[in-house]
Amino acid sequence: MRDILVSAHNGLWHHICVTWESNDGSWKFYKNGDLKDENTNFKTSYTIRQGGTLVLGQDQDSVGGGFNADQSFQGMLSNVNIWNKALAAEKIRKMSQSCLLEEATDQIAYKWLDFVHEGGAKLVKPSPCQPVVMGK
């Protein structure tokens, strides 16, 4: 999957979405609304418990620490959201074309503003997000 991530590192804005379902451990990786990779049996029947820490943009060499500035994400993130269910492929495709969140946010476990308010992030306005041209 690393080759897919590297191909998104070209100075352009990309919509990235990863889904995972506990029941069969299936995961899917979408870039710009297109399914790029998928597999099963990843953390099958696993439950994500409350009280943990989610780290964005930084490799951890140990849980909650061991950060190295040379391993940090360089770029901008926007509209990072975590839903409590796997989104359908059509919904992901539509979101990738609009740069905007759908109005129905009742199933978002963590929304973008939760991340922005939790520290460290620098909010750049206006967002550089531009609608994705399909096939890119």
Automatic annotation (TrEMBL):
Taxonomic superkingdom: Eukaryota
Keywords assigned: Calcium, Disulfide bond, Glycoprotein, Metal-binding
Residue stretches making up the Pentraxin (PTX) domain: 1-130
SUPFAM superfamilies referenced in this protein's UniProt entry, alphabetically: Concanavalin A-like lectins/glucanases
Protein name: Neuronal pentraxin-1
SMART domains on file: PTX (SM00159)
Spans through the membrane: none
